[in-house]
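User: Okay, second chain of the day. Same drill as before: sequence in, structure tokens out.
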Amino acid sequence: MLKRYLLAPGPTPVPAEALLAMAMPIIHHRSPDFLPVLDAAKKGLQWLYQTKNDVLILCSSGTGGMVGSVNNFFSPGDKALIINAGNFGERWTKICKAYGLDVKEIKIEWGYTVRPEEVEKALKADSSIKGVFVQASETSTGVYHDIESIASIVRKYSGTILIVDAISALVAHDLKMDDWGIDVLIGGSQKGLMLPPGLAFVGISDKAWKFAESAKCPHFYFNFKKERESLAKNQTNFTSPVTLIIGLNECLKLLQKEGLENAFARHRRLANATREAVKALNLEMFTKESPSNAVTAIKAPGGLDGQEIYKNLRVNYGITAAGGQGQAKGKIFRIAHLGYADTFDIITAIAGVEMVLKSMGYPVKLGSGVAVAEELLII
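Assistant: Same drill. Structure tokens below.
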């Protein structure tokens, strides 16, 4: 028997409270029974997003939220500024080009974060830029971008909105949507919110809603105006993912019981322990600056293949972490500390890495990384 451990940056483990709630008999999405369910989810997401505005709930992966955040606020030919610092920055570029936007990129070497002054320089040089697109946590590289500083720059431009992919950053990082002036904030169910894949969440500012009034990109399924109208009646525009929304409420209850600040602190603590344990094994971080609290990206050592490390963790020890993506494939492996994660998830991950590396011929003293993690995680 091989026990399984899920330590990937999505999907993440689902707590028993949510699993049990989702196992209850299904209810109809247009029945009175569902109205209080969606109302609770709506209020819980406003709390999480730290916003007075509604947060739309879409039946899709997080990428659906990204697509909708392009085709609901822009028209073909509109200028878009993309922070391209990894695999998901590249995805912003692909989506914007698919809808005919005029794309300009700030390209950042993988493993590094964008300098907010680069965004300001680009906006000063071209005031016709209508959207700035960025990841909060670039999952492919383990980097966190300074969203607060970027938002403080973009909010000065009345003709420009800031669209933030926070799919792997929600819960792991403090993102104050209203206070900072984030215009569009996108989340996904299978990350910090501890649910199976299938839901995307989009918070929208008053400023962004004004952009929606003149947007001409085609859209049908991801129609944010209709979703907003439906949400006012505690409905979704199309068939609601009832079971997932029931589970969402359970996960929001757990987070509310923990408290936002405590949830952020837990993710910081787990991330720090992971990084310091990795350094104790004489491994090099792939992330050169501003590491994310959601995931740690580690360089494969001594000519070893990062995909083989990831594979051996899964096949031999039942630990599903993550390999590299895009240009980082084979060069790195990644360990998540996101969502339903705590002390012994990190200790298990580090112990697994030690054992895999030793079996692959890398000189490692067993227990050296685990000892560091234990010291940092003692309560």
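The chain has a mean pLDDT of 97.

User: Thanks, on to the next one.
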